[in-house]
Write a structure and sequence with these properties.
alpha/beta; Aspartate Aminotransferase, domain 2
Length: 389
């Protein structure tokens, strides 16, 4: 039995929730991944946007090894030095007035907390979100997620469903928000929904409506955070919400969720209203602090902007008749095809490039923020081979 077959056999013990690819990834180095046969793949997806520093980053690895030798777990009822260092790094990227945090283990958990905090702060239950929006699959977060395939199996036990409006549609948003709205929940850049970039005017109108009706504006930056050229895309475009949710890239693949709120919201949340046993533990906090430090000192935000603009322009220059549109910002971009994307995704893998899908027509790219023009050129060369006329 080959190494791959052994891995596949053992994996059969899992509940079959995921559509499996036909390779097993066993090692990473920088911007590349390797399978059991030693084949190298260009990482253009960073495992759904989490490996922001690439793989086996020396400084990141050294920090984790050091922390493993000190302390791995400490409940948040105790103070801890590693957690405090992480919170200090978070404070450097948090917009003024939105600096109180809750630490959890994933983007979904961070969204769940945000929704609870919004309902506590307003005493309301109504949620307004965007069509094609994705906010997670736990029951609370699922109430804001738009995709029916995620929601339908649980319709009988979901709480009050959100009102979903068209993305970037000012009139639809204005019609949906009322004095019964607890929160407006938006991804400033949609990922799962097909890579759609929010207009600054639309995001600002959401903030204005939230203020008018006493609602809470939540920006879900789980996927768009960091890789779009700034810690938070919405804030970089001039709109500061009441709550910011982030995860994925913030700890280079470690399970972290962060919910940032205003002082006013934080002061209304009673003790014990929410919690997390593993959230903010020393090991994960050390990894998060080190990730943010490296992003800051290596100026990976500017790198994401520069390389992202470069690769998007190069893809557009291909002029392929198979491409309907190229969308994105920074190192969060996608190609909408005129044909189903599944075959192209498979062809990319066969050519040594790992990417993702977003719906049935969009190939989604979420590469490490450490990409250079070299990796961009490698991707474009493969795309030219696959999509060339």
């Amino acid at each position: 039995m080959t190494a791959l077959n052994q891995i596949i056999a053992a994996d059969a013990a899992q509940i079959p929730l995921y559509a499996k690819r036909d390779i097993a990834l066993v090692r990473g180095e920088g911007n590349y991944l390797f399978d059991t046969d030693g084949k190298r793949y260009l990482d253009a997806m960073s495992n759904y946007g989490v490996a922001s520093l690439g793989h086996a980053h020396p400084a990141f690895t050294a920090a984790l090894v050091d922390q493993l030798g000190k302390l791995t777990t400490a409940h948040q009822s105790f103070y801890n030095d590693a957690r405090s260092a992480f919170l200090e790094e978070i404070a450097l990227i948090a917009p003024e007035g939105v600096g109180r945090s809750f630490l959890s283990n994933s983007g979904t958990e961070a969204v769940e907390a945000a929704l609870k905090f919004a309902r506590i702060a307003t005493g309301r239950s109504g949620i307004v979100a965007a069509k094609r929006g994705y906010h997670g699959r736990t029951l609370g977060a699922l109430s804001a997620t738009a995709e029916k395939k995620y929601r339908e199996p649980f319709e009988g036990i979901l709480g009050q469903a959100a009102t979903h409006v068209a993305f970037n549609d000012l009139e639809a948003l204005e019609a949906a928000v009322s004095d019964e709205t607890a929160a407006i929940v938006l991804e400033p850049v949609q990922g799962e929904g097909g890579i759609h970039v929010g207009d600054a005017a639309w995001l600002q109108r959401a903030a204005d409506l939230a203020q008018t009706y006493g609602s809470i504006l939540i920006f879900d930056e789980v996927q768009s955070g960091f890789r779009t050229g700034a810690p938070f895309f919405g804030v970089a475009n001039g709109v500061v919400p009441d709550i910011i949710v982030t995860a994925k890239a913030i700890a280079n693949g470690l399970p972290v969720g962060v919910t940032l709120v205003t002082d006013a919201i934080a002061e209304q949340v009673p003790g014990g209203a929410h919690g997390s046993t593993f959230g903010g533990n020393p090991l994960i906090s050390r990894g998060g602090a080190e990730t943010l430090r490296i992003m800051r000192e290596d100026d990976l935000y500017a790198n994401a902007t520069r390389v992202g603009s470069y690769v998007i322009a190069k893809i557009e220059e291909l002029g392929s008749s198979k491409i309907r549109a190229v969308r994105g910002t920074g190192l969060m971009f996608g190609i909408e095809l005129k044909v189903k994307a599944g075959g192209v995704l498979k062809a990319l893998q066969e050519h040594g490039v790992l990417a993702l899908m977003a719906g049935t027509l969009v190939i989604r790219f979420l590469p490490p923020m450490t990409w250079t023009e070299q990796q961009a050129d490698e991707l474009v060369a493969v795309l030219a081979d696959i999509l060339g006329d």
